[in-house]
Design goal:
Helix content is 75%, strand content 0%. By secondary structure, the chain is mainly α.
Length: 262
């Protein structure tokens, strides 16, 4: 297993230029020939989150400024997670022609999607940070934890993305099932509400949701002005390690079979 692992990482390292070309291609093509270009990376999520903040702050009878920051700090990690999982599911299917023509480490396809979306998310975060300053929300040294939060979120999400990318090759209908699962998971993730707001039979589902600690990694420094709790950090590390380990094991097991299933 060790020689196979070393070979895998060696191939990935030698193909890093191709990886960055794929990342750049996704970033460029996404907004090519639009008047505002890459500014849509900032405008689109901010407009959507602003509308949601206005609507749900009214429904929940909450202060708009406070609720806007609360919502934004939950939506930033959620949008990244959801986008990576759904787009990684079709990463091999969409690149079938390229995969069959030349040999490339297959992991660069879901990895390029995750990396490109991470860049998008970081830009959205800076826009969010400006809004937080405008709304006069409390700032503290806890903001220095945000890079660690991004790292843990990236590792966790990449692991899930590897699993969905492999699974969808074998079960094509899964790409549509994933969209439904993401919609359901959104409402079972405390983004629009605080965890204690749910009671009864539904409340325990939040404790089983592995995305929750990663929401708290961002919400604590940005909304509460404090570091995440020790239990949140430990859970996030454990989920990240478990996700990337399982993802890589499944990927290495099925990597050479992908081309025959496309």
């Amino acid at each position: 297993m060790k020689p196979r692992t070393y070979s895998f990482f060696g191939e990935l390292s030698s193909s890093r230029n191709v990886l960055w070309q794929l990342v750049a291609q996704q970033l460029i093509l996404r907004y090519r020939r639009t008047a505002l270009g890459y500014l849509w990376t900032l405008i689109n999520p901010l407009l959507m989150m602003s509308i949601m903040a206005l609507v749900f702050s009214t429904l929940f009878n909450a202060d708009l400024k406070t609720f806007a920051v609360f919502l934004f700090t939950g939506m930033i990690p959620w949008n990244f997670f959801s986008s990576v999982v759904t787009q990684s599911g079709t990463s091999f299917i969409n690149n079938e022609g390229l995969i069959k023509k030349i040999y490339l480490p297959k992991i660069i396809f879901p990895l390029s999607i995750t990396s490109a979306l991470l860049i998008d998310t970081i830009f959205s975060f800076f826009a969010l940070f400006i809004i937080i300053l405008i709304l006069d929300s409390p700032l503290s040294w806890a903001l220095l934890f945000i890079p660690i939060a991004f790292l843990l979120l990236f590792v966790f999400t990449l692991g899930i993305g590897l699993i969905t990318s492999i699974a969808t090759v074998y079960f094509r209908d899964l790409q549509y099932v994933i969209l439904i699962i993401m919609q359901a998971l959104f409402f079972l993730t405390p983004i629009l509400y605080k965890p204690e707001a749910l009671k009864g039979k539904v409340a325990w589902l939040i404790t089983l949701n592995p995305v929750v600690p990663f929401i708290d990694l961002f919400r604590a420094p940005l909304y509460l002005g404090s570091l995440p709790s020790q239990s949140t950090i430990v859970l996030s590390i454990l989920f990240s390690l478990a996700s990337i380990t399982v993802g890589l094991i499944i990927f290495l097991w099925q990597e050479k079979k992908i081309v025959f299933r496309l």
